[in-house]
Amino acid sequence: MKDFLSVSSCSTDELLELLDLSDTLKKFYKKGNRDLCLAGKSLVMLFEKPSLRTRMSFQIAMAQLGGHPIYVKPEDIGGIGKREPLKDMARVLSRYANGIMARTFAHETVLELAKYADVPVINALTDWSHPCQAMADIMTIREHFGKLNGIKIAYIGDGNNVARSLAFGCAKLGMKIVIASPRGYELDEKSITRTNEIAAGTTVQTNNPHDAVQGADIIYTDTWVSMGQEDEKQKRIADFKGFAVDSALVSAAPKAKIMHCLPAYRGYEITDEVMESQNSIVFDEAENRLHFQRALLKKLLS
Predict the structure, then answer these.
(1) C-alpha 173: how far from its chain's center?
(2) Which of 116, 9, 118, 99 is CA-nearest to residue 61?
(3) What is the mean pLDDT of the chain?
(4) Residues 170 and 273 in one domain
(5) What is the pLDDT of residue 154?
(6) Residue 240 lies in a domain
(7) In the prediction, which pLDDT does 120 show?
(8) Given this model, what pLDDT does residue 232 score?
(9) Three-state secondary-structure class, residue 32
(10) What's the CA gap between 103 and 273, in Å, rounded?
(11) Given strand 257-260, what is the order of strands in its sheet?
(12) SS3 68
């Protein structure tokens, strides 16, 4: 594994190795220990989209491993791939740093960075894939259920990058996912077909959230309006009516754990009552971004 660009590009063994290392390092650090395996090494962090969890978790993880994170905003370098070609940027950064992390809009950006970089490239989010989030989610599920095989996720909302990454994770790790989206917002057919080719029956798409949550172990949701979609906000709010994760929906699967990748817009895709309920593990999954990414950095950069 040179790069970490998507869950779909990793093998089952690679994903399990990362999960196991995440668990080990989480316990190790919780005891007050430190592993300085990245002392003297640096990670360039390219951001086209602002973030709380991605920036903080990568910076802290890199620092905890003894390394040096370098935060780069688009305006610091005249835009990613705008002032100079990505292939030039990738090769220059490869001669300065030990790794490149990118949080971008277009998935092609991280693909091109990885093609030309001599150092590991990590996808911290693109419009097509959010592998670090999905793996932190899967780590959290395994912590709470003690297993992955046979777990059913009901994903309520937009068939977006998170839904896609979770679907591929389910296909490779023995879980099932039912995605409930309004018409026109479903996960793309190519991703559904591909995940079901990896493991038959992995991904089911529906337009009925109440059908989706039947027998679910996890009820998962995400914002209806992602960055870059602000102009569609009012239309999306109207189109997603009836898809909120509220007490009425949760009552159909009362033992299900509640997950949200954050930021949450309470009163829209999820209610405050559900976010604050005893079954919510939202902040466990947020914490595990740090633990998974620490393991990923150790694996790729040490």
Answers:
(1) 16
(2) 99
(3) 96
(4) yes
(5) 98
(6) yes
(7) 98
(8) 84
(9) coil
(10) 31
(11) 203-206, 176-180, 152-156, 218-221, 257-260
(12) strand
3 occurs within a structural domain: no
- Predicted pLDDT at 206: 98
Quick one: tokens of 103?
């949080």
Three-state secondary-structure class, residue 69 = strand
Active site residue ranges = 103, 130, 133, 222, 261, 289
Alpha-carbon gap, residue 289 to 92, rounded angstroms = 28
Percent helix, strand and coil across the chain, each to the nearest 5: 45, 15, 40
Q: Which domain holds residue 219?
A: 133-285
Does residue 59 surpass a pLDDT of 80?
A: yes
Q: Residue 31 sits in a domain of what CATH number?
A: 3.40.50.1370
Question: Do the Cβ atoms of 64 and 40 come closer than 8 Å?
Answer: no
221 and 160 in a common domain:
yes
Of 293, 294, 170, 271, which Cα lies nearest the Cα of 221? 271
Tell me the mean pLDDT in the region 190-214: 98
Give residue 281's pLDDT. Answer: 98
Residue 161 confidence (pLDDT): 97
Beta sheet of 42-47, edge-to-edge order: 68-72, 42-47, 99-103, 121-125
Q: What are phi and psi of 4, to 5 degrees?
A: -130, 95
Q: Which residues of 259-294 are buried (b: 16+ CB within 10 A; e: fewer)?
A: bbbbebeeebbbbeebbeeebbbbebbbbbbbbbbb
Beta strands in the chain (DSSP E): 42-47, 68-72, 99-103, 121-125, 152-156, 176-180, 203-206, 218-221, 257-260
Please give the backbone phi and psi of residue 46, each rounded to the nearest 5 degrees, phi first. Answer: -90, 125
Q: Do 193 and 142 have their domain in common? A: yes
Question: Which tokens belong to 150?
Answer: 């046979």
**pLDDT tens sequence across 60-109:** 999 999 999 999 998 888 888 888 999 999 999 999 999 999 999 999 99
pLDDT of residue 52: 93
